[in-house]
Amino acid sequence: MSIPLYPPTPALTDEKILLPSASFRKQTIRVISAIVLFFLVYLMLLAAALVLGVASISAGIYIITLGINWLIILVAGGLVVLGVAVIVFVVKFIFTSSKAADRDNFEVTEAEQPELFAFIRQLTTETKTRFPKKIEISPDVNAAVYYNSSFWSMFLPVRKNLIIGMGLVNTVNISEFKAIMAHEFGHFSQRSMKLGSFTYNVNRVIYNMLFENDGYNNFLQSMAGLHAVVAIFAIVASSIARGIQYILRDMYKLVNKQYMGLSREMEFHADTIAAAVAGGNNAISGLVKVTIGGITYSKAIGMANEMLADKKITENIYDNQQLILSGLVRKNELQLQGSLTAIPAALAEYDEASRIVYKDQWASHPTFEERKASITSLNLYVPPDETPAIQLFRDTNTLQHTATKMVYVAVDTKDLTVCPANEFEAMWQVKDAAYVVPPPFESFYKYRVPRYQEWDLDAVIESTPVPTFAEIFNDANNKLSTAIRRNENEIKILDAIAAAEIEVASFDFEGQRYKRTEAATLKVKLEQEQEADTAAIALLDKQVFRYYYEQNPTVKSYYEKMASIIQHTNSYTDLQNKVINLLNTFYGQQVAIETIHHALRAIRESHNPEMKTKFQEAIDQGVVTNETLKEELTAFINADYQYFNAEMIFAVEINQMIHCLTSVMTAWNLYQYCQHVVMLEKLLQPVPAAL
């Protein structure tokens, strides 16, 4: 049967490529071996715990028969406590119920979406998989397979469910959608997914023994409180539990590291299925579009969060996502038609790739480049159908509105108003423009504001020769800022490798192989590079000033104003740090009430007056522009927060203070960055002609 809007399938000359690879099968055996080993270790721990527990309880009962006095009763009771505690610790996970997390999804039916179901049914035929039990729509940029991972799912066949993200559908064409769905059905066909159930339940057991111990610890503490003799046995039981935890931590690493390896192989295999039914070019393009969709959806979510501060919501976040994407395409002259092979540089929210290459044994997915190389090697091409995937759906407006409501599921929207589309567009254009560093400064000042407050401008004028434009704006200088950020990241990676936080025996740097023990030596080299680059860019910043000052001496006042803004931002940062440090003395900890009172008293008496002054300053200087935040700050300024009294802690006051404090910090950082952009734009303005 011919199905409308169903892209063609490539001619497959060798169906053997659809079989699991040798590395896939090898990794499957490793996971099975690790799971079997876990159960053997657990059974040995259980047997040892039962022997010790029964022996302790029996010894306690036997001691009672020797005679009755307080010491004998206490020792007997302690032995019984020890025996019971050890047995309970290794079996308590059986009596723990875990409630599945609610999913922010909603189900669609064939009656509602017949074209989508026909498309999926045809795809399951091509991929030789079962039709999903349910098809659900999620609000984000996502596609996934899931099933209820219960005890019985380890042994019995389980129907899998398919999740389709509305943010994904809003981004891809129908060929890319077919490839992405085929990838998920590739997972449907993998019997190795059942190992996920075993791994999930292994993790449940381990997690329960490592972390879900409040009731167990309370039991030991209550027993220890009966008498010092009983406390000794409670301490022994606690020590045995810690020994069991030590063993289980190693088992967790073993099982999950092997499963992550299998997970990567499962991704490669699912990519092969996708390429076989939709074309490798469309599979790669789909991966790129998922990233692009994630970037634009994240920006739309960020705007939605900002609108909440103005007590506004959006009815259709996917219209906003499309508007943001369209604006980025126009501004950067992007081409998103055809089969994409890489994320456009203008949309990529990351710097130059790290020069350090290592096999991340804890990664659940291969890197994009690894997946791209694997798919390309299959040499399967199908011309893309540029029809938007959203056309597979009926009543898309209702679907998108429903998905948008899921975005606000944790928000009380009763008193919020809807932001019209034209108002959102105007807000986005203002926000987007505020962050755009004008050419030729993009490479210098994107994500960066120099420390102008440390400059003596007169000394800079005297000591810095006037450079030419070419001496400043050239390829070498354009790469400095990126190199510094990249080096910062690479130094952190080397620290993690040296400390064995990243578990590798070796790694590559610029194509050369290094042992883990050589990471510290290489770090010294990168630190020297970093020092040289930092000095070079510091000089470059001064050359920029000197170049534009020579053309227009008024530029000096721009830099003076910018230095003042940075000083105000730093002063506010110091205040926030002092308050946060005081809060950290008790937040999330069990401490004496006097410690809490001492910290809150210091905030109230030493920092409240300064907070009020700086909040008013932020309003007066236009740092805070959001009307709702202005009202909240004014209310704080006019209030007399005490934070506590002899009877209770005033959590509402503390939370409101933290909200105001952090919101103004965010406003100062944004204001500083935007004012720097404004200053750079002024540098480019023509110099007024002399009268």
Automatic annotation (TrEMBL):
<protein>
    <submittedName>
        <fullName>Zn-dependent protease with chaperone function</fullName>
    </submittedName>
</protein>
<dbReference type="Pfam" id="PF01435">
    <property type="entry name" value="Peptidase_M48"/>
</dbReference>
<dbReference type="GO" id="GO:0006508">
    <property type="term" value="P:proteolysis"/>
</dbReference>
<dbReference type="InterPro" id="IPR001915">
    <property type="entry name" value="Peptidase_M48"/>
</dbReference>
<feature type="transmembrane region" description="Helical">
    <location>
        <begin position="31"/>
        <end position="64"/>
    </location>
</feature>
<feature type="transmembrane region" description="Helical">
    <location>
        <begin position="70"/>
        <end position="95"/>
    </location>
</feature>
<keyword id="KW-1133">Transmembrane helix</keyword>
<feature type="domain" description="Peptidase M48">
    <location>
        <begin position="161"/>
        <end position="376"/>
    </location>
</feature>
<keyword id="KW-0482">Metalloprotease</keyword>
<keyword id="KW-0862">Zinc</keyword>
<dbReference type="InterPro" id="IPR050083">
    <property type="entry name" value="HtpX_protease"/>
</dbReference>
<feature type="transmembrane region" description="Helical">
    <location>
        <begin position="226"/>
        <end position="248"/>
    </location>
</feature>
<keyword id="KW-0378">Hydrolase</keyword>
<dbReference type="GO" id="GO:0046872">
    <property type="term" value="F:metal ion binding"/>
</dbReference>
<keyword id="KW-0472">Membrane</keyword>
<keyword id="KW-0812">Transmembrane</keyword>
<keyword id="KW-1003">Cell membrane</keyword>
<keyword id="KW-0479">Metal-binding</keyword>
<keyword id="KW-0645">Protease</keyword>
<dbReference type="GO" id="GO:0004222">
    <property type="term" value="F:metalloendopeptidase activity"/>
</dbReference>
